[in-house]
């Protein structure tokens, strides 16, 4: 019996459960450049991932989400694709990729690829032929006439600066919602949609198990490119996110998945909770990354507001999670990824209570309804780094935003933005993985492509594996528990203390099975003033503290205490 079919062959008495392997899976996201370097170049590679296939199996994950490994000039670390059907030389060869696929599948771990189809690299053959106006490629991208000194409208790039660049060779402006090296594809052109579908089919035929679809909410732009509202967090967002034909494009793309047993998750940074179900009832798009909960730490003008202090209220998080759990058919569960600060630095306490709070957020992640995603390093409690100058940064988004703040006079120097960068930068998630306390954290024998967090001597996989109370072992036990308890996968969610500013308590109920999760999301002790659940008996099945009482309403809870109970309501 494999880990993928264990639920389907067990506990089938709940006839109303709509089972699917991707619902019952725990996904592990890998950022290849920073995972493991097998050849001493200082850059993580595909063979390095294959070397760690046993590690992933031991952790117990079911699916690997592989960030882009396609041919790319690396203007945005692989999210600028030059060739969808090749492997970036730094990462290895197609044979190396096939070896990774086979190593994962041999261990019953599925593989999904990161598909970037809102934009390509400027070096992609499609863009090169389009700028030359070759027959059939003239409108593969969004081209606009205009004065070389005056962009077609006021839209802003998500990475900072104008969303338009002038191309001297073609004599027109082209649209790029991200870096100027990443021109947006023109999805109004059916030839573009057909070419993308061909890419999807090509990879499915190579035996992958699905896709994470990058920036999928930006495929449809408003007709005529009207000026955007400058009061939006990003000027133009109201016209280039969730455009008028997005559902049509997603439905058409979904046909490429017909006949394949796949998992698909769309990244929609601008989707509100009400919109998610509008896109996930199309066959082929199973679920969506909805980011509202990630914004609880943002300032009034968004996550890059220079005035934001990084403080947040638990009740705000509860309100959003309650709505996601109640209103989204099947949520994608995540609290970190390659575009976010480190999980424990963002939602926990990465100093005095790093291990306890890392375990608490892990408990939360893995006991909610939906498919959970673990980003590499979260399982050992990796933290944000400290960047003291602009020169230390790699992320074009962070650099672009800091430069824009400088140009606008919002800050006088990098020092004025340092606290903000050290809370928000995407580079925190891209520091290399800590495998051991050996030089370069065991990541490489060469010179690492990006500086390694100096705390690797204390936070690393090697020491975590030998410590039964480590963050890593807590993740492993949580994953095992989720695989064993259908109530934690399919059970109904009920928030028991929605107004409590310190305690988060909720139940997961499936038939006569009931699980209770109690979290003290603070660095102070907490007292349970009244029973959080009416029960005759509760049994502790997992906690991040020793000696926790079987009575969830008794006594006080330690800082960042997280306990899962099985409830006997008979």
Automatic annotation (TrEMBL):
<dbReference type="GO" id="GO:0004556">
    <property type="term" value="F:alpha-amylase activity"/>
</dbReference>
<comment type="similarity">
    <text>Belongs to the glycosyl hydrolase 13 family.</text>
</comment>
<feature type="domain" description="Glycosyl hydrolase family 13 catalytic">
    <location>
        <begin position="29"/>
        <end position="430"/>
    </location>
</feature>
<dbReference type="InterPro" id="IPR013780">
    <property type="entry name" value="Glyco_hydro_b"/>
</dbReference>
<dbReference type="GO" id="GO:0009313">
    <property type="term" value="P:oligosaccharide catabolic process"/>
</dbReference>
<dbReference type="InterPro" id="IPR045857">
    <property type="entry name" value="O16G_dom_2"/>
</dbReference>
<keyword id="KW-0326">Glycosidase</keyword>
<dbReference type="Pfam" id="PF16657">
    <property type="entry name" value="Malt_amylase_C"/>
</dbReference>
<protein>
    <submittedName>
        <fullName>Alpha amylase</fullName>
    </submittedName>
</protein>
<dbReference type="InterPro" id="IPR017853">
    <property type="entry name" value="GH"/>
</dbReference>
<dbReference type="InterPro" id="IPR006047">
    <property type="entry name" value="GH13_cat_dom"/>
</dbReference>
<dbReference type="InterPro" id="IPR032091">
    <property type="entry name" value="Malt_amylase-like_C"/>
</dbReference>
<dbReference type="Pfam" id="PF00128">
    <property type="entry name" value="Alpha-amylase"/>
</dbReference>
<keyword id="KW-0378">Hydrolase</keyword>
């Amino acid at each position: 019996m494999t880990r993928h079919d264990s639920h389907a062959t067990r506990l089938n008495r709940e006839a109303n459960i709509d089972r699917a392997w991707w619902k019952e899976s725990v996904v592990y996201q890998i950022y290849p450049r920073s995972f493991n370097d097998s050849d001493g170049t200082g850059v993580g590679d595909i063979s390095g991932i294959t070397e760690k296939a046993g590690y992933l199996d031991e952790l117990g994950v079911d699916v690997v989400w592989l960030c882009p490994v396609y041919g790319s000039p690396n203007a945005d670390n692989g999210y600028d694709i030059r060739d969808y059907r090749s492997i970036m030389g730094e990462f290895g060869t197609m044979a190396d990729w096939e070896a990774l696929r086979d190593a994962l599948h041999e261990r019953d771990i599925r593989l999904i690829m990161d598909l970037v189809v809102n934009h390509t690299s400027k070096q992609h053959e499609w863009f090169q032929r389009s700028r030359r106006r070759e027959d059939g490629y003239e409108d593969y991208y969004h081209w606009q006439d205009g004065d070389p000194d005056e962009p077609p409208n006021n839209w802003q790039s998500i990475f900072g600066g104008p969303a338009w660049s002038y191309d001297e060779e073609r004599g027109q402006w082209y649209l790029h919602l991200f870096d100027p090296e990443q021109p947006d594809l023109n999805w109004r052109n059916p030839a573009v949609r057909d070419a993308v579908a061909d890419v999807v089919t090509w990879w499915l035929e190579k035996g992958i198990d699905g896709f994470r679809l990058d920036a999928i909410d930006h495929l449809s732009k408003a007709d005529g490119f009207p000026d955007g509202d400058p009061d939006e967090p990003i000027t133009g967002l109201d016209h280039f996110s969730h455009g008028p034909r997005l559902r049509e494009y997603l439905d058409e793309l979904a046909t490429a998945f017909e006949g394949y047993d796949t998992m698909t998750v769309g990244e929609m940074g601008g989707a509100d909770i009400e919109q998610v179900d509008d896109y996930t009832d199309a066959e082929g798009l199973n679920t969506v990354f909805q980011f509202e909960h990630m914004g609880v730490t943002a300032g009034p003008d968004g996550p890059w507001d220079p005035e934001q202090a990084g403080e947040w209220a638990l009740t705000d998080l509860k309100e959003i999670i309650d709505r996601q759990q109640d209103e989204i058919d099947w949520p994608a569960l995540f609290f970190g990824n390659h575009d976010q600060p480190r999980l424990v630095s963002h939602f926990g306490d990465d100093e005095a209570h790093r291990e306890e709070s890392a375990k608490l957020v892990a408990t939360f992640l893995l006991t909610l309804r939906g498919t959970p995603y673990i980003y590499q390093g979260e399982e050992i409690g990796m933290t944000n780094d400290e960047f003291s100058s602009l020169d230390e940064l790699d992320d074009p988004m962070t650099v672009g935003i800091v430069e824009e703040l400088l140009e606008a006079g919002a800050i006088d120097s990098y020092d004025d933005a340092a606290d903000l960068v050290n809370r928000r930068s995407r580079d925190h998630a891209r520091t290399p993985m800590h495998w051991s306390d050996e030089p370069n954290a065991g990541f490489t024998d060469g010179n690492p492509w990006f500086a390694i967090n100096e705390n690797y001597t204390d936070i690393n996989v090697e020491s975590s594996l030998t410590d039964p109370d480590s963050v890593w072992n807590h993740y492993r036990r949580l994953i095992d528990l989720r695989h064993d308890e259908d109530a934690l996968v399919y059970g109904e969610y009920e928030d028991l203390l929605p107004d409590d500013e310190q305690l988060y308590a909720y139940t997961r109920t499936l038939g006569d099975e009931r699980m209770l999760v109690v979290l003290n999301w603070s660095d102070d002790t907490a007292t349970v003033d009244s029973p959080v659940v009416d029960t005759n008996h509760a049994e502790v099945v997992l906690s991040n503290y020793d000696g926790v009482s079987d009575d969830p309403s008794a006594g006080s809870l330690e800082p960042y205490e997280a306990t899962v109970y099985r409830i006997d309501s008979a």
